[in-house]
Specification:
InterPro entries: DUF6698. With 116 residues, the protein is mainly alpha-helical. Helix content is 37%, strand content 0%. The chain is globular, with a radius of gyration of 15 Å.
Length: 116
């Protein structure tokens, strides 16, 4: 079972890239799953998902790594929230409910086919 789960986690990187290509997020360029440079903060789509919810991704100062915008331990990434919507008055609403996150959990803990 541990080996199978490890295989599922390994295949998640490839599967996640295909899910990202199917989302409504704006893809300015192709995401190459074998190239780590295209992932994390090096691609517009993944940057948007990793952007803390308390910051507005549409603000150009965030893209330019302005020193006033620091990610702290309490800065939750937007991919954790349903539809990437964060309500500062109710921060628990939608937390851990995003569709991509739910698919990833199913992919790892049940089976890759259950996430489709």
């Amino acid at each position: 079972a541990d080996i199978a789960r490890g295989d599922d986690i390994t295949s998640l990187k490839f599967t996640l890239v295909s899910w990202l290509m199917q989302t409504s997020l704006t893809l300015n360029s192709i995401i190459f799953h074998r190239n780590k440079f295209c992932l994390r903060f090096y691609h517009n789509t993944t940057e948007q998902l990793l952007c803390p919810v308390n910051y507005n991704w549409d603000d150009a100062a965030i893209w330019n790594y302005h020193p006033d915008y620091c990610a702290m331990f309490y800065s939750w990434p937007s991919y954790l929230y349903s539809d990437r919507y964060y309500n500062p008055k109710n921060p628990m609403k939608g937390l851990f409910k995003d569709e991509l996150l739910m698919k990833a959990v199913k992919h790892i803990f049940t089976s890759p086919s259950s996430a489709e």
